[in-house]
């Protein structure tokens, strides 16, 4: 497929690396990236086409997919020059948090085919998960194209109800920060228990990443994996009595994700 990527930042760059690694022909990919050093790097290292601004695209350019990977704060300023592409019928795939499908059709036109997607930062190491939501104009073939592109950086799920993307943003979009904070808190607790700072942080980091890989590879539910580590009356049980008690981790996480969900709704309104 002919593919236009708008923005070569961390997420856009990670996706671009994944596409090329999956076998997308470099000559079929064009990136619009105003940072000359970034654009030159992609051109030289990956062999893709790169321009600094949309007015440098050929007049008859008609990509099948336009991936919009710019910060949501600048989206309204960046997107208008691409409205002329709508006439050729591409699907616009957005990975900008908080920007609704309606905000895209307001700029691109009511006939625009738009998929709004919420990835997360583990996409940078090919272990992300993305949830997409298409508007009514998106065909099955276009949805399949978007899934293929998003799969280059991890797993893909779909929802039909766009309002669910607020909860998706709170759970998986923001979720890596919760895990990083868990490692941070465990390291702190280890230091408070008497371990040297470097050892405490190393143990916490290895434990969180190792448990995550076990969760990734095992078919067992998270609850079963937890039970498998917990001996009655043992050390793990003593810790879980605190974590699973009143106002423990489950209640805190529920409140945290509810707060993030509401903030996502506020930002989208």
What does this structure look like?
By secondary structure, this protein is of the alpha/beta class. Helices cover 49% and strands 14% of the residues. It contains 11 helices and 8 strands. It has helices at residues 10-21, 36-46, 75-78, 101-108, 140-150, 164-173, 175-192, 197-217, 222-229, 235-243, 249-268, and strands at 3-6, 29-32, 49-51, 65-68, 91-94, 113-118, 128-134, 154-158. It has an 8-stranded mixed sheet with strand order 3-2-1-4-5-6-7-8, sandwiched between helices. The chain is elongated. The two termini are 34 Å apart. 30% of the residues are buried.
Question: How would you briefly describe this protein structure?
Answer:
The protein is of the alpha/beta class.
The poorly predicted ranges are none
Task: Indicate the structural class.
Answer: alpha/beta
Radius of gyration: 22 Å
Distance between the termini: 34 Å
**What share of residues is helical?**
40-55%
Bulk shape = elongated
What is the count of DSSP helices, taking H or I runs of 4+ residues?
11
Largest sheet: 8 strands, mixed
Largest sheet, spatial ordering of strands:
3-2-1-4-5-6-7-8
Strand content: 5-15%
Find the count of extended strands (DSSP E, 2+ residues). Answer: 8
Mean pLDDT: 95
Order of helices and strands: EHEHEEHEHEEHEHHHHHH
List the helices and strands and how they pair.
Layout: E1 3-6, H1 10-21, E2 29-32, H2 36-46, E3 49-51, E4 65-68, H3 75-78, E5 91-94, H4 101-108, E6 113-118, E7 128-134, H5 140-150, E8 154-158, H6 164-173, H7 175-192, H8 197-217, H9 222-229, H10 235-243, H11 249-268
Parallel strand pairs: 1-2, 1-4, 2-3, 4-5, 5-6, 7-8
Antiparallel strand pairs: 6-7
Helix pairs in contact: 6-11, 7-8
